Amino acid sequence: MKFSRRILEIKPSTTLAITAMVNSMRAQGIDVLDFGSGEPDFDTPQFIKDAALDAMNEGKTKYTPSGGIPQLKKAIISKFKRDNNLDYNIDEVTANCGGKHSFYNLMQVLFDEGDEVIVPAPYWVSYPYMISLAGAKPVILPTTEATGFKITPEMLANAINPNTRAVIINSPSNPTGAAYTEKELLDLAEIFKKHDILIFSDDIYEKILYDNFKHRNIAELVPKLKSKTIIVNAVSKPYAMTGWRIGYIAGDKEIIKHVETLQSQSISNPTSISQYAAIAALTGDQTALDNMLAAFAKRREIIVNGLNEIEGFSCTKPDGAFYAFPRIKDVYSLPGWKNIEQEYNDESNSIKLSSYLLKEAMKYTT
Ligand code: PLP
Predict the structure, then answer these.
(1) 62-285 is classed in which CATH architecture?
(2) Main-chain phi, psi angles of 190, to 5 degrees
(3) What are the tens digits of pLDDT across the range 255-287?
(4) How many whole angstroms separate alpha carbon 218 and alpha carbon 187?
(5) Residue whose CA is closest, atom 8 of ligand 1?
(6) What is the pTM (predicted TM-score) of this model?
(7) How far apart are CA 276 and CA 280, in angstroms?
(8) How far apart are CA 326 and CA 100, in angstroms?
(9) Which terminus in the chain has less CB density within 10 A, N or C?
(10) For the segment 191-218, what is each residue's pLDDT rounded down to a tens digit?
């Protein structure tokens, strides 16, 4: 069978592959904790489920406008006003099937061959593939612990070239949990002001922050950059709604129009029932998040402290999101590493180490 060049160039999502492995181990009766995909282990709050049940019972189970029903768009607009102090018109927002789909749409409507998108690393695994699927080139901009896993104005300025069309800012970040301060964003803004490039602000973890860190958005901080900023957000993470698949975009109305045209010819519309649930999530009782946040904060202490006790591991405290990003490089100079390296067959050392740890842990399960 001949397959398209596009599909042959991409690999399945590693995080989803790890979750599939966990599910298969659980099916065999093995008690395993899943640190694979980024998913709150809480249930969707009841009032959100009730809104979906009401929608079903009221027959709101038909096609909707491709970018979502007007009530959802209004809820998205009021969320941006309440949380980010940003004003959008109804034709500047659209709803999609999850934040991943929001990005996929954006890449498809904005980029062609020859276009480049700067992706600060470490990054959420899907960005580069979605950029490649649009025919464009992901330009990876590596960061290290030394800059707190964040890009600096100098790094940004050096990475921009005439083919650069956009830069992704994901704060707090998957997978490092690093978040940009107001000052850091203002400094980056000085570079953005000098170039005609788009800023993708991936705000999906904006509500999951610790130690009173306040999320800021570059569009709010620098009104001059609002027209160049496209914000992507979703109900998935903050409201424990990963399976409902509702994400949303705010930005330039021409971009929104093209995204909706693409949706009309690809998915028709995000699921009607989920749209009603998303309205409840965005406009309802926001304190539902508090319990989740308190649990995440406690787990952050346990996991970061625990990781730092392991020989060869070190881990900085994430500002937000629910990830820990340990440095494991020093493991590779420990005496036992040579055996692990030879025993496990993978091109990536981190996967070799993960497989070894999983196998070792199995010895302690009943
Ligand atoms: N952006 C980041 C940084 C993510 O980590 C994820 C999911 O893991 C998404 C966007 C997309 O989330 P979803 O499609 O579940 O709304």
Answers:
(1) 3-Layer(aba) Sandwich (3.40)
(2) -60, -35
(3) 999 999 999 999 999 999 999 999 999 999 999
(4) 10
(5) 38
(6) 0.94
(7) 7
(8) 25
(9) N
(10) 999 999 999 999 999 999 999 999 999 9
